[in-house]
Amino acid sequence: MILCNWEPDDWLEFHAIAADPEVMRYIGDGRPWAEERSRQFVERQIALYRERAFCLWKLMPKESGGLIGFCGLQPLPGTPDIEIGWWLARACWGRGLATEAAHAALSDGFARVRLGRIVAIAQLANTASIRIMLKLGMRYEKMSTTRGIPVVLYSVEMPRAK
C-alpha cells in the first residue's frame, strides 16, 4: 500500500467509498455522503497538506489499482489534538491494511512531523477501529463527544529515544 497526496479529481473515485452505507456506518451520523461532501473532503485534504505538511493521505495498492481508502493525520475539531484516522473500501476489510497504513501514518507523525501526541476517536460500537488503536499502542483516555456524537478517545505519545 502507498500513502499518496490527493489530486482534485480523486473525489470521483473516493465518493464510491464515502457513499457505501457499510463504510459509513460508524462515521458521523452514519449516513453516506453526497458527491459534494466527497469533493469537499478531498479539497480539505489538499489544503491541509499545503498548510501543515500532513493530511489524511489517499491509500493506493502497491500493485495497479485504484484508490482503496485513506489514512493519515488531521486536527481533531474543537481540540488542540491531532488525530489519526482511516477508512477502507469494504472490499479491503479484514486484511490488515488499515493497521499497516495506520502504523505508517503514526510513524510519520512522530518522526517527520514531530508530534508529541496523537489521538484517535471511534464510536464505541466500532470495535474494528478500536482494535486498530490498540494495535498501534494507543490507550483509552476518555469518553468524549465529537460533532454531537459520543466517541471513545485513545491516545499515544511519541516514543522516547533510548
Q: Share of helix among residues?
A: 25-40%
How far apart the termini lie comes to: 30 Å
Query: Any idea what the CATH architecture is?
Result: 3-Layer(aba) Sandwich
Q: What global shape is seen?
A: globular
CATH homologous superfamily caption: Gcn5-related N-acetyltransferase (GNAT)
The gyration radius over C-alpha positions equals 15 Å
Spatial strand order of the main sheet: 1-2-3-4
Q: What is the class in the CATH system? A: Alpha Beta
What composes the largest sheet?
A: 4 strands, antiparallel
- Helical run tally: 4
Secondary structure class reads alpha+beta
One letter per element, helices H and strands E, the order comes to EHHEEEHEHEE
- Stretches where pLDDT is under 50 for at least 5 consecutive residues are none
Keywords:
alpha+beta; three-stranded antiparallel β-sheet; 7 strands; 4 helices; 162 residues; 28% strand; four-stranded antiparallel β-sheet; 31% helix; Aminopeptidase
How would you portray this structure in words?
The chain is an alpha+beta fold and 162 residues long. It is built from 4 helices and 7 strands. The strands form 2 sheets. The protein has a 4-stranded antiparallel beta sheet with strand order 1-2-3-4, covered by helices on one side. It has a 3-stranded antiparallel beta sheet with strand order 5-7-6. A hairpin with a 2-residue loop joins strand 6 and strand 7. The longest helix has 18 residues. The protein is globular and about 45 Å long. The model has no long low-confidence stretch (mean pLDDT 94).
